[in-house]
Design a protein that fits this description.
- By secondary structure, the protein is an alpha+beta fold.
- The protein has a single domain, classed as 60s Ribosomal Protein L30, Chain: A, CATH 3.30.1330.200.
- It contains four helices and ten strands; from the N terminus they run H-E-E-E-E-E-E-H-E-H-E-E-E-H.
- It has helices at residues 3-8, 93-106, 131-146, 182-196, and strands spanning 20-23, 28-32, 38-41, 45-51, 55-61, 66-70, 114-120, 152-155, 161-166, 171-176.
- It has a five-stranded mixed sheet with strand order 1-2-4-9-10.
- Strand 1 (20-23) and strand 2 form a beta hairpin.
- The model is unreliable at 1-5, 78-88 and 197-208 (pLDDT under 50).
Length: 208
């Protein structure tokens, strides 16, 4: 399948701008998301990202077979941000989770059918305030307070991860990346940390 054919697959309204490509090894259309992104679909396609200290929640309605994945950087918004308009910024865990889950509801999903899988929060940013640990605490608190159950998880550790998620089936393919990948991810995440309170999310931030 060509890129043009992959792009022609119908996207859920509001997510048409995400680019798709056909992966021959996966035999599926693939959508890549970056920090601050989330994507939902009701098609047979894969959502992919790479995580360092960030977290991705893979969420779907297992009956309706609609779901998606987010990628957030920090648990909560800093009260001293210089950009008040970023209050609903999906780089922050609270809003990333709410936007993803609420959009699934808007497109036919139901709370009682939700399946939630959590990944990431690796200890890859040494000396940066234990970002991964804070992300884990946040996501556990969020799940408890909101009354959601964790279907499966792979959080923490000292390694980054690559995640491939198919919301239609609920299948997650996770690869723990070797040390050669860590330096690039550390560099990107430090840059993102420095930018997160002073600039809007850039559309092309990429940890691959």
């Amino acid at each position: 399948m060509s890129l043009t054919a992959a792009q022609s697959q119908t996207a859920i309204r509001g997510f048409e701008h995400y680019k798709k490509f056909f992966d021959n090894s996966l035999k599926a259309n693939v959508v890549k998301i970056s920090p601050g992104d989330y994507y939902i679909t009701d098609q047979q396609e894969i959502i992919t990202t790479v995580l360092g200290s960030c977290i991705s929640a893979c969420v779907r309605d297992k009956r309706m077979k609609i779901g998606g994945m987010n990628h957030f950087m920090i648990p909560v918004k800093c009260p001293h941000t210089s950009h008040p308009e970023q209050d609903m910024d999906t780089r922050y865990g609270t809003y990333a989770m709410e936007h993803l889950i609420n959009d699934i509801y808007k497109h036919g999903g139901s709370r009682r059918n939700l399946e939630i899988k959590l990944f990431g929060a690796g200890n890859v940013l040494v000396g940066s305030g234990d970002v991964g640990v804070k992300n884990i605490k946040f996501i556990y608190d969020f799940m408890r307070v909101e009354g959601y159950k964790i279907t499966s998880e792979d959080l923490g550790g000292d390694f980054p991860r690559k995640i491939n998620y198919c919301p239609m089936t609920g299948k997650v393919m996770m690869k723990r990346l070797v040390s050669a990948n860590i330096a690039d991810i550390q560099l990107q995440e430090r840059k993102l940390q420095n930018q997160v309170e002073s600039t809007p999310v850039a559309g092309e931030i990429d940890l691959f």
